[in-house]
Design brief:
0% helix; rod-shaped; 7-stranded antiparallel beta sheet; Neuraminidase; 59 strands; mainly beta
């Protein structure tokens, strides 16, 4: 898109100058030589931002040539009938190295007083495609430009980033070539072509002037800009953008016509694209209390549609609590009261699996019931009676792992999967965990976390399942059992609360898993175990449980809060941020 700069009048030259050489930055410029005008062909002027003043007479006449550098360190090279290069140091003129072996003119020069490139030109009755390099004292032959011969063309840039365009010769009138410090290659054609054009900038940001047309280049596309007020077809002078700026602002165009006018380009600096830092803070916050107090209940669903069922509150609980994102209310009554069941699914397609409703061997159940959002109904039963195990999955891909039964050998390693109709046996659990754990995933990709291996201790072991076999995964930060957990993706799991091995007691601590390793997560608001839980990823909930040696109705929600402060000069990798955006682009992300 256009830069949108506008032109205004500056101080007039002291004398008319055509086909002149120019140097300088911003509003500190030099006008050197002229063609067929006396004494201008051998004199020079300097602009100080307000007015032009004479800076004396050069040692030779410089006509139809070019210059480069600053207002205090410039060169003007060769010209019609002249071989010499002259230097201006801000005080006086002095001779430098001769360009080539004889006089040449119509060439372009870009760079600085001590590091310049001269391209093309007219020499010995021929237009050339050569280029020469200058080190402040000597010109050396550099090679040829592949785009053809050219002279009276535009050139700008440095020793490693030169751009030349337009001109006369075998090159096209709109052709552009770019130098990268090693060789020239074809660039993007200009949209205005002709002889005696002038240009400032470099290959990725340039401004081209021809007649009264002005085009800008962003390294990809040439676009039209606001034109000059005066037609300048006789090689005007042009300064480069003000020193230290990385955008086109405050240049001047002067001479190149029958009048002495000077025009100044005023382009407001681009509005910087701000860095926005997204600070993601995970928090636990209170939810409304459940209707029924209990511990060791089952749960499933999301923070906007949660389901709590069964449990123990002095008796085997048969009540259901539903949460709608605002409040809890009673749901449909279970078919039987049971404690330590496990559940999976959603509020309108939830499953309760197993559980206990008495102290005898036969009072551990293998029954599975499905909730439709209103009432419970029996579906295909498990093959193994179990309570205090783990469950996960979806209505069409359920998964139940381990648990306990009463009687001898109470600790179970059995695993079953559900296909929406019936249950099937899967590979048994490893011996390091069999109850009071959590399960995540389904029969083709699952993870079992923590729990108790038999009668003692809390394990830090985790195991993955690939549909065929179990394998050890990364250990927890600390062993845990009887904890709450999220469902959802296996690369974004959170567990919280429960019995902590290191503390040898109930905890409020959290842990998170990214699919590779476990790390410490934030603490919840209270210390409890034997809770119902659900959610996924950054959105989790827990409700009821054993808190302060009593049954609980308390519920909490785990979520994240994002803020987007504008960060001036933000450094990528700032540990204070979760994400860093440049405009709409994420340039840093630790989430």
């Amino acid at each position: 898109m256009p830069l949108g700069g506008t032109w205004s009048s500056g101080g007039d030259l002291l004398a008319r100058r055509e086909y002149l050489s120019a140097a300088g930055y911003g509003q500190a410029g030099l006008a050197m030589g002229s063609y067929n005008l006396n004494p201008q062909r051998q004199t020079a002027e300097e602009y100080n931002g307000v007015a032009w003043s004479s800076i004396g007479t050069m040692g030779a006449r410089h006509e139809m040539t070019s210059g480069c550098g600053s207002s205090t360190a410039a060169i003007v090279s060769s010209g019609l009938g002249v071989q010499t290069t002259e230097h201006w140091n801000g005080v006086a003129w002095s001779y430098g190295g001769d360009l080539g072996s004889a006089a040449q003119y119509g060439h372009g020069v870009g760079g600085s007083e001590t590091a310049a490139i001269a391209t093309g030109g007219y020499y010995g009755g021929q237009v050339k495609n050569w280029y020469w390099k200058y080190d402040g004292s000597t010109w050396t032959y550099g090679g040829t430009m592949p785009g053809g011969t050219r002279y009276v063309h535009a050139a700008t840039g440095g020793m490693d980033d030169q751009i030349v365009c337009n001109g006369a010769g075998t090159c096209g009138a709109n052709d552009t070539e770019v130098y990268d410090g090693v060789s020239f290659a074809a660039g993007v054609d200009t949209t205005v072509g002709g002889n005696y054009t002038q240009m400032s900038g470099d290959p990725v940001l340039a401004l081209l002037v021809y007649s009264n047309y002005v085009n800008s280049f962003d390294g990809v596309t040439w676009v039209a800009e606001n034109g000059l007020s005066v037609i300048r077809t006789k090689q005007p002078g042009i300064t480069d953008t003000a020193a230290g700026l990385d955008y086109m602002q405050d240049m001047m165009v002067y001479g190149g016509t029958t009048v002495t006018t000077n025009e100044i380009w005023d382009n407001a600096p681009p509005t910087p694209v701000p860095y926005y830092g997204e600070l993601i803070t995970h928090v636990w916050s209170a939810m409304p209390n459940t209707v029924n107090y209990k511990r060791e209940a089952g749960g499933c669903g999301t923070t906007a549609a949660a389901l709590v069922f069964g449990g123990y509150s002095g008796n085997y609980n048969y009540k259901t609590d539903e949460y709608n994102g605002t409040a809890w209310e009673n749901g449909g009554t279970m078919l039987d009261g049971r404690t330590n069941p496990r559940g999976f699914g959603t509020q309108t397609a939830g499953f309760v699996c197993g559980g206990k409703f008495g102290n005898s061997t036969t009072n551990v159940t293998y029954e599975v019931d499905e909730y439709d959002g209103t009432s419970w109904a029996a579906v295909d039963a498990l093959t193994q009676r179990t309570y205090n195990g783990a469950a996960s999955g979806t209505p069409m891909a359920g998964f139940v792992c381990g648990g306990m039964k009463t009687g001898s050998a109470p600790y179970l390693d059995t695993v079953e999967s559900y296909d929406g109709t019936s249950w099937s046996t899967e590979a048994v659990l490893p011996g390091d965990t069999n109850h009071a754990h959590s399960c995540h995933g389904n029969a083709t990709a699952a993870l079992v976390v923590g729990g108790q291996p038999g009668a003692g201790g809390y394990t830090d072991a985790t195991f993955t399942y690939n549909g065929t076999a179990w394998a050890a995964s990364d250990d927890l930060v600390t062993g845990i059992a009887g904890h709450g957990a999220t469902a959802g993706s296996l690369d974004d799991i959170r567990i919280f609360g429960g019995y902590n091995y290191d503390l040898d007691g109930i905890t409020d601590s959290g842990q998170q898993y990214d699919g590779v390793a476990w790390a410490t997560d934030i603490d919840s608001l209270d210390i409890r175990t034997s809770m119902a839980s659900g959610g996924s990823g950054d959105s989790a909930w827990k409700a009821t449980g054993w808190l302060n040696s009593s049954y609980s109705t308390l519920a909490q929600e785990y979520s994240f809060v994002s803020s987007f402060p504008v960060i001036a000069g933000a450094a990528i990798g700032s540990t204070a941020l979760s994400k860093l955006y440049l405009g709409d682009t994420v340039v840093y992300d630790i989430t």
